[in-house]
């Protein structure tokens, strides 16, 4: 969607087709932190799954427990490969007899023969005799995100109800963690809803601001903060997107074992970058401790208060006091971003898990 004042993203930016910013990316972030901002996220792909067996079938396909997902609720979920590595991440909204799943543009999954498929093709191939009809609904549904302490008030001012629970769904609105609401609107009404929200006081914010606030909140993004080896525990997707107790989904054994043992090989941490450097690292750059590579750079962002920051997958043996270089730029670990370990089960329990 092309909007007045929108600055398009650079060619290597993953958010093509939506605004990078609207002239003042730091002011946009401040609005989201203090009042309310609206973000065009209409580049998200949407898959619709209607059919009588939609919940029982999805329960077998994805990492989250959805067999009893009530109407007008949502959740996050993953598709994993047989080794428990993340293929796809999606956010669900169950309403009107359909599960709507929004995901990254170009989402992929590993097929039964080890070949890479689009997420929709993977789901289609796994239908068998189930009464489901997954389809590409990107042309039907577009997403806007409303962020900030005044977001609920803004929704009410344009005649929309505010879900009370996280991942609750009410009509067009899905509540997300923090002061964030996603609006799943008919794509032909996208411009009209944008106008309503901005006229109600929401400040337009581009992907620059959205990504900076996402990094601050330690929320990973598939394909940017993950690589081909990432398992859910490394990027805080347990339990928000992966259920540790349910069985019978691809990759479940890895999820259960690593959760119970509590020792994923890496962890996603927030890095503070040297703001005096001539350039910033890029996604995929190595993180080094001296001459040793100890991690991988994910999202790099310019934050309105924190300055240059990044998410990075770092070996769990690296302590917060370690001096690091991310893509050649001096970096330090934010100690508040270090997740608490799941308590280990002890040697006998570990032996049983591996038996």
Automatic annotation (TrEMBL):
Entry-linked NCBIfam families: ygfZ_signature
CAF17 C-terminal domain mapped to chain residues: 266-335
Name of the protein this chain belongs to: Folate-binding protein
UniProt-listed PANTHER family: TRANSFERASE CAF17, MITOCHONDRIAL-RELATED
Pfam families: Beta-barrel_CAF17_C, GCV_T
InterPro entries named in the record: CAF17_C, GCVT_N, TrmE/GcvT-like, YgfZ/GCV_T_CS, YgfZ/GcvT
Record's keyword terms, sorted: Transit peptide
Disordered: annotated segments: 334-355
Domain of life assignment: Bacteria
Domain GCVT N-terminal as annotated: residue spans: 28-158
């Amino acid at each position: 969607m092309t909007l007045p004042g929108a600055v398009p993203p650079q060619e290597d930016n993953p958010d093509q087709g939506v605004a990078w910013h609207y002239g003042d990316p730091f002011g946009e972030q401040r609005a989201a932190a203090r009042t309310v901002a609206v973000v065009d996220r209409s580049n998200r792909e949407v898959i619709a799954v209607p059919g009588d067996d939609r919940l029982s079938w999805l329960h077998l396909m994805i990492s989250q427990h959805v067999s009893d997902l009530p109407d007008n609720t949502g959740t996050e979920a993953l598709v994993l490969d047989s080794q428990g590595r993340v293929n796809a991440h999606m956010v669900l909204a169950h309403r009107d007899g359909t599960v709507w799943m929004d995901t990254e543009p170009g989402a992929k999954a590993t097929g039964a023969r080890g070949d890479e498929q689009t997420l929709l093709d993977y789901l289609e191939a796994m239908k068998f005799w189930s009464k489901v009809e997954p389809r590409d609904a990107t042309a039907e549904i577009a997403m806007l995100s409303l962020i900030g302490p005044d977001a609920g008030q803004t929704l009410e001012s344009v005649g929309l109800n505010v879900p009370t629970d996280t991942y609750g769904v009410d009509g067009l609105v899905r509540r997300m963690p923090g002061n964030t609401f996603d609006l799943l609107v008919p794509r032909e009404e996208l411009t009209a809803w944008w106008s309503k929200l901005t006229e109600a006081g929401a400040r337009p914010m581009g992907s620059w601001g959205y990504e900076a606030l996402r990094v601050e909140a330690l929320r990973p993004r598939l394909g940017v903060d993950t690589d081909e080896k990432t398992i859910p525990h490394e990027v805080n997707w347990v339990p928000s997107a992966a259920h540790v107790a349910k069985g019978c989904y691809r990759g479940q054994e890895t999820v259960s074992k690593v959760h119970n043992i509590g020792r994923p090989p890496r962890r996603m941490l927030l890095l503070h970058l040297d703001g005096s450097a001539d350039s910033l690292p890029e996604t995929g750059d190595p993180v080094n401790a001296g001459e040793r590579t100890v991690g991988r750079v994910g999202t790099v962002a310019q934050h309105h208060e924190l300055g240059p920051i990044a998410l990075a997958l770092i070996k769990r043996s690296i302590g917060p006091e370690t001096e690091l270089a991310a893509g050649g730029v001096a970096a330090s670990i934010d100690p508040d971003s270090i997740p608490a370990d799941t308590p280990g089960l002890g040697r006998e329990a570990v032996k049983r898990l591996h038996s």
